[in-house]
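Database export, one record per block. Field names are fixed; values are copied verbatim from the stored entry.
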Amino acid sequence: MDVVALAIPEVKLITPRRFADARGLFCETYVRRRYIEAGIADDFVQENQSVSTLAGTVRALHFQAPPHAQAKLVRCVKGRIFDVAVDVRLGSPTFGRHVAAELSSENWQQLYVPVGFAHGFVTLTPDTEVIYQVTAYYAPDCDCGIAWNDPDLGIDWPLGGRQPVLSDKDQRLPRLRDVALPF
């Protein structure tokens, strides 16, 4: 397993080892002791899967507030996504900055998004599937988010001229400067 800290070092890009032979591929996508050795000791308690039919589907910048704050381990199992983590920790030297990585079914990479970061992605291909593990159960009363297109964040979403496909909820999310941040 190869682990690379991105420009915000708490966010990590993980490439698990793959083993190929005439039958195809085998990969251990999560081995707790290896993640602990890499400095990721989180206890993942829930796994979610999203399916996005259209390329250009934006699943906006979400996070959960304490006491149900979540770290996430994200991977794309079909298609490709542009995956984003935004630092929303007040007082952090990287507050309001983001990092991004392309995750795909071809590169098998995963993005580790720690507590205190908003997470979102845009699908780059149709019929994209994303699986992510989280460290806290979904708690609707702690569900928060930031507008995907907040100009203060400066995220260059690769929409390729497409109009983004957004949920009603994601269309109404506030800018970062208008969110009462709990971190």
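Remark 1: The domain at 44-178 is CATH 2.60.120.10 (Jelly Rolls).
Remark 2: The first helix runs from residue 32 to 37.
End of record.
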